[in-house]
Amino acid sequence: MENKAHALIAGLFTVILLIAAIIGVMWFNSDRVERVPYEIATKLSVPGLNPQADVRYRGLDAGKVDAITFDPKFPGQILIKIKINPDTPVTQSTFATLGYQGVTGIAYIQLDDDGSKPVKLASSKQHLARIELRPSLFDNLQSKGAIILSRADEMINKLNDLLDPANQKTMVKAFSDVSDTANAYRDIPQKLEPTIRQLPALTGELNQALASVTALSNNMSVLSKNLNSLTASLQGPDGAVTNLTGAVQNIGSVASGVEYDTLPRFNTLTNEARSSMRTLNQTLDHFNQQPQSILFGSKALPPGPGEAGFVAPSK
């Protein structure tokens, strides 16, 4: 009986010790950190993400995933509740993406911040703040892959349309035409060979012509400079233009003198000559009518009308 009592006590002690060990392990493994709750609402797929998954902020451990549920208010939307260490700098511009641990397929929440709104995002159990979940690299690759596959399928269809029998005949005919054209132009280099041989001589002549043009240009430059000098000398204070202008002014003065002085005198002289000639004519007429007047003097003229002794001629 005594041995059985000792065995029972030893068994009870062992069970109690085992229970105490389990409680101790659970107590040491329990998470006693007071974390801040946040919520992520998304309609993206979250494959590989489970409760108690890690939450990292730019690669550093920042918390755990608390729960993953469906949103009863919005069908198709998933609510992910996470708890983050209070010292994690969560702001209004913090966003989340899904990260994967190697090839295991186990996902975790990766937090990052673009710095557009550096204001701390407050959250509590009563008022959960939401963090945006953006498409991860895998999601982008998945969406881009679908687009790439769609375009590849479209390209394959176009290639199939391009390589249909009718187009194949057209392409074969085009290749044949190109071959015929190449054969037709095969002799052109031989025909151009004499011309090509003359190219050095033509190049030499062209160089000579260019040298002549250059010399002509230099001569024209010198001529232009000489003309400029000549023009400057002609237009100078003692230049020919100035002297010519003075001569023109003198000629104008002489012409004015002839117009306003010499011509009136000439007119007066002409009038006097005309009067003398008229008097000489009258004298000659009187001499012709009365030549004896040279010896006896001229007769007195008969009285005119209104003078004493005037007799009107009889009809």
UniProtKB/TrEMBL annotation:
<feature type="domain" description="Mce/MlaD">
    <location>
        <begin position="45"/>
        <end position="112"/>
    </location>
</feature>
<protein>
    <submittedName>
        <fullName>Mce related family protein</fullName>
    </submittedName>
</protein>
<keyword id="KW-0472">Membrane</keyword>
<keyword id="KW-1133">Transmembrane helix</keyword>
<keyword id="KW-0812">Transmembrane</keyword>
<feature type="transmembrane region" description="Helical">
    <location>
        <begin position="7"/>
        <end position="28"/>
    </location>
</feature>
<dbReference type="InterPro" id="IPR003399">
    <property type="entry name" value="Mce/MlaD"/>
</dbReference>
<dbReference type="Pfam" id="PF02470">
    <property type="entry name" value="MlaD"/>
</dbReference>
